[in-house]
Design brief:
eight-stranded mixed beta sheet, 10 helices, alpha+beta
């Protein structure tokens, strides 16, 4: 099946995940794509094809060489972001992009413009897949799924390319941070792997934030406002004071690269009680621990000022920087860099200002850097992906598999 036809078929399946759900997968509709992928891989003749009750799909491309070669894996996620609808996606191909504005939806005056997204100009002359402006596209990460399966199919069609055993795995709920939670690393049984879930062509990511969540619960005291003097403790006002104690120049809007931050993501408050929820991020483990300690000190300072028990802080780790694990197996990065170069792509090593399934998998025993899938402007109506970038991602996967088989292990 053609790479683009495969991708467009996947975008027709609504797989939006939900942060409010407590089921696995978080939305039942993700199972529709899981079943489709299971059937497709069976029709391709892959072995060990399976799907569990949570929607995790696995399969194997058997080795075609007698050489001792490590088993490697490739992973992408099936869900799309809760941030915008992925239902009734209407993709359109803009052939030979001319560098100008792309009208996505004339009725709603939705325009994809290089004046707002200058990265478009780097893809002038290429063929872009865009939305109609009413949904996201789903290149994150259906492009990755299509690239992995197209690479596997390419190897099936070119048996002269020798390779070891290759495993593929597709999971739900990555967008809500739960994609790796139930991924069966033992069953996957690989020595190393790659997620294909990055953005711009050439990007390779093996550093990500250390991440924690901090929830501050603030207890106030509500009395009639006419008789409140010296008695009332307004929890909403205390929440505002607590927020002001965090450094204003260490937020997502004021940082980039390796700089960490504090980010308030939720605020609910009344007079009697309030809750402020932060996420804490830092690439450096020592800096990460210092940030968590600072968050706790904010609660301690509030309690000293207003009385013990006024503020309760719950700080919990979410994931860690995969670089700690990848540094133990640097050849995993070397192979990917060589594969990109042989696909006509310059490898660009960039830190992830976020997380990835690969980070959690790396700490579960599967070293797993993240490779580009080619998509841009994820999670919204302006999402797009160049066909040429998808083709290069597919060939990068092919080359990783080939190079791994050629190395002297």
């Amino acid at each position: 099946m053609d790479l683009i036809k495969r991708f467009l078929g996947y975008t027709a399946v609504d797989t939006q995940s939900s942060e409010e759900s407590e089921t696995v997968p978080s939305t039942a509709k993700q199972m529709n794509l899981a079943r489709l992928l299971k059937e497709e891989m069976e029709q391709m003749g892959l072995s060990e094809v399976s799907m569990d009750e949570m929607g995790y799909v696995y399969a194997t491309l058997p080795a075609n060489t007698d050489r001792k070669v490590p088993t490697i894996g490739f992973i992408s996620h099936m869900d799309t972001s809760p941030s915008m609808s992925g239902k009734d996606v209407k993709p359109r191909i803009v052939s030979n992009y001319d560098g100008g504005d792309i009208v996505l939806n004339s009725e709603q005056n939705i325009v994809l413009s290089p004046s707002l997204f200058p990265e478009l100009l780097a893809h002038k002359g290429e063929d872009l897949i865009v939305t109609d402006g009413t949904t996201l596209l789903g290149a994150d990460d259906k492009a990755g799924i299509a690239e992995i399966l197209s690479a596997v199919e390419y190897l099936q069609q070119h048996p002269e390319i020798k390779h070891g055993k290759v495993r593929v795995g597709f999971n739900p709920d990555e967008e809500i941070g739960m994609g790796a939670a139930h991924f069966d690393v033992e069953k996957f049984d690989c020595e190393f792997g790659y997620t294909v879930d990055g953005g711009e062509v050439g990007e390779m990511e093996f550093e990500n934030f250390n991440a924690a969540k901090a929830v501050f619960r603030i207890q106030g005291l509500e009395v009639h406002p006419g008789y409140a003097k010296g008695k009332m403790v307004n929890a909403s006002l205390l929440a505002a004071e607590l927020i002001s104690m965090f450094p204003a120049n260490e937020t997502p809007a004021t940082t980039c690269g390796y700089e960490g931050f504090y980010h308030i993501v939720g605020l609910q408050g009344e007079v009697d009680n309030a809750t402020a929820t932060f996420i804490i991020r830092d690439h450096d483990r020592a800096g990460f621990e210092a940030r968590k300690a600072f968050a706790q000190s904010v609660a301690d300072d509030m309690n000293r000022k207003y009385g013990a028990g006024t503020v309760t802080a719950t700080i919990s780790d979410q994931y860690y920087n995969m670089k700690e694990q990848i540094d133990k197996v640097p050849f995993v990065v070397d192979i990917a860099c060589q594969a990109m170069e042989e696909s006509g792509v310059k490898a660009v090593k960039v830190p992830i200002r976020g997380g990835t399934d690969g980070a959690q998998l790396s700490f579960k025993g599967l070293p797993c850097p993240n490779l580009f899938a080619g998509g841009m402007n994820f999670h919204g109506r302006y999402e797009w992906v160049p066909i040429q970038s998808m083709e290069k991602a597919m060939m990068t996967v092919v080359n990783i598999i080939r190079i791994t088989a050629q190395r002297n292990w």
